[in-house]
Amino acid sequence: MKSKPSISVVMPTYNAEIYIARAIESILKQTKKDFELIIVDDCSTDKTLSISKRYTHEDKRIRIFRNNKNLKIAGTLNKAISLTRTDIIARMDADDVSEPQRLELQYKVLKKKPKVAVVGAHMMVIDEKGEEISKREYPIASADLKKVLFRYSPFAHPVVMFRKKVYQEFGGYLENIFPVEDLDLWFKIGTKYDFATVPEKLLKYTLYTTSSSHKKLKSIEILGLKVKLNAMLKLGYKPTFYDVLYNLAEYSTIWFMPSKLRISLFNFLRSRNLI
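Predicted structure:
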């Protein structure tokens, strides 16, 4: 790689041997070519690492690292970002697919709008077989994106692009609040910078029928509530009356509604922009 890239794509991996090749190839097919792809493997026990390494022989833009111990997603992301050579970071997961124009379109937004620190996009939700299930859209304007912070994350984490300097300014991802480390960071960044969304579906997001998040939904949502309370008490955010009602309903249903049903209900409502 003779010249410095303009974008660093960071991809944490863990036991993703079924999907990793598809994910890597979707980045290599981007219309914007001047990027580096940083892959950090979080102690996979399958063939994820060996499959990833094959691509380094074909494309020198790819750099691969392996954790000495399992750091989980936030720790692995922080490490990956520390290894990057650019100020523009694009997130990517090992089981998703980026559309060819993703990097190009998101990069243009950050270049044209210096006040924007994070840019997301719409996405298509697919199952393990790659079949389309539903679409998920997000608000476009910064003010509208910030309005939904108390209901759901204003960005699909695997399809964000952000400025590394801003990420560093707010201390990066907290590593002890998985999996709401992204929501915490968006709350912090939103106190000072703008958000944006590319109004196109730029990612195919893999939704699993069985997931560890289903089993841990109660603890996840309690962590989410703590992040929201912190935003109110320490960051100056003020939820609307509707936000309060929504969170009361969400919290109360934790105790009697099955996790799988709650996730299905949320996905149904989000796919129709009803929340």
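Summary: Residues 3 and 210 are 43 Å apart (CA to CA).
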